[in-house]
Prior knowledge:
Immunoglobulin-like; 25 strands; 3 domains
Amino acid sequence: MDNAEEVDPTTSITVIFNHPVVPLQITEEQNDLPQPLTFLPEIKGIGEWVNSSVYVFQPEEALLSGSNYKVRVEAGLEDTNGEALQRPFSWTFSTRAPMIGSLALKDGAQNPPTTIGNVLLDQAFLVTFLQPMDTKSMRENFKFVNRETGDSFPTSLTWNKDETILTITPSRRYEIASFYDLSILDSARAKDGGKLKEGWTLRFGTVPLPKIEHIFPEPNSKAETFNASIEIKFVSPMKLDSFENKIKITPQAEKNCSGTSTTMIGLCVSLDWNRNGIMCSYLTGHWKNLPAFHPRRRILSFSTEKFNP
């Protein structure tokens, strides 16, 4: 197809003639058959007649990304009846520019929005490219800055064997409740020298200082029906097992602590079914994968309705 765009650099090049050009022969006997294609710029590779009128050229290496090519069949090529091509035939195509295929938080969300919050203080990132990249060029065209101070943030850049997947790991923890910009510039080059079609910037905020956002039942409330559960929602991801022996209830009751998410802690409490329960709780805990915090004691009081078997 003439003027084709966004062609995969690993593609083969196929031309179909309207008449049989060569007799049917196996690949090993095709050395004397015409090789009808010329390329500008030159492409090294191997051509094969797959039948008498279809010729397929396979480049030795991937074509240059983001580049224009011209293919030409010279006049004079004869078909099996001896009739010659009267005029040269040519067409052009352009290969796909280097591109970022996908983005991800390591062990987290795939292709997140360009602005996100609640990022953990040791969060790493994965960038997958559609082609091998020039790692030196990537290092020179990569920026990671604290948005509030403008200071560069230290990171480690590591690649997979094919140099198509980049892992960005912070060299130290991010600051609490801070904001960062992670950018890959469009001047970064692929291994074959082509420039990225588009760059990418992720703007993110880190987890805020831990605090309780919401509690159910509401403090100082009285339930109209019996409910043996308590829910505590935090603004930051929390580590569930750090709440062991950190939540106390009076009057004393058995409790089972579980997490419906990293920010929600749920309690199932065994109460005396024959009386109203007045309960108070306080707690400390840990961020997920982070050091302990010790907020001031938080007390809530509420009452439940009697259980009706």
